[in-house]
Amino acid sequence: MPTPHISAGPDDFAPAVLMPGDPRRAERIAHALMPDARLVTDVRGMLGFTGTVEVDGVAHPLSVMGSGMGQPSATIYATELFREYGVQRIIRVGTCGGIAEGVQVGDVIIGTGAHTDSSMNQARVPGINFSAVADLELAAAAWGAREKVTEGTVHAGPVVSRDHFYWAVPGMVDGLRAHGTLGVEMEAAALYGVANEFGRQALAVLTVSDHLVDGSADMSAQERETRFGGALALALAAATC
Ligand code: HPA
């Protein structure tokens, strides 16, 4: 049963997986949400946990696993979880850089679609510019839970998933901003593509950790931890809907 990148047994994953980029964050989320969290995989240090989470008095099975950084890494784990472990939905919980004017550090973005400069989805359908869109049921559940976010504003709309973190073509950010793109991150477009490939569900819920245009102060490492709660509440609502 183990796959090249996941050492779990056949029934070790829950149908819903929360997926932060950082495996250590996966560990912290798992132990914060699930008193019975148990480690199910640790290949290459990409930790995955499964347990039971209680939401509004109802217990739900849940897994939490890191994706690593970037679309190739996230694609490997999402593919193996959907194809080999029967996972039905993956909700990315991560950070993003703000792009849109109305978006501020500390806000939460529900990524309803994801533009990309990656070739990963371009290679899927010959002659087609693939549209990477989130699952509507998951996005609606996250949006419907937005009153649970007590700090910052919740936005829903397109993000961009880039391959480069540090380098951008001149004019790219301005163009994205002019077309209503809310933020930039590095995994959602590929995750949505894999979900389409397997007929499963995916969503990205992102905390804005810095802003590419407006120069507002970046979040400190500590703030990234404490201000993560809003995005996690929305992701949980999607995971358990
Ligand atoms: N790009 C730029 N800024 C960011 C990102 C990113 O992928 N994630 C968080 N801040």
Description:
Residues 16-227 form the Nucleoside phosphorylase domain. This is Purine-nucleoside phosphorylase. InterPro entries: DeoD-type (IPR004402), Nucleoside_phosphorylase_CS (IPR018016), Nucleoside_phosphorylase_d (IPR000845), Nucleoside_phosphorylase_sf (IPR035994). It comes from Kytococcus schroeteri. Belongs to the PNP/UDP phosphorylase family. With 241 residues, the protein is an alpha/beta fold. It has one domain (16-240): Nucleoside phosphorylase domain (Rossmann fold), CATH 3.40.50.1580. It contains 7 helices and 9 strands, in the order E-H-E-E-E-H-E-E-H-E-H-E-H-E-H-H. The protein has helices at residues 23-33, 71-85, 136-144, 172-178, 188-198, 221-226, 229-239, and strands at 16-19, 38-41, 48-55, 58-65, 89-98, 108-116, 154-161, 183-185, 201-211. It has a 5-stranded mixed β-barrel, surrounded by 4 helices. Helix 2 (71-85) packs parallel to helix 5 (188-198) and helix 3 crosses helix 7. The longest helix is centred in the first third of the chain and has 15 residues, at 71-85. The protein is globular, with a radius of gyration of 17 Å. The model has no long low-confidence stretch (mean pLDDT 96). It binds hypoxanthine. Hypoxanthine (HPA) binds next to strand 5, strand 8 and strand 9.
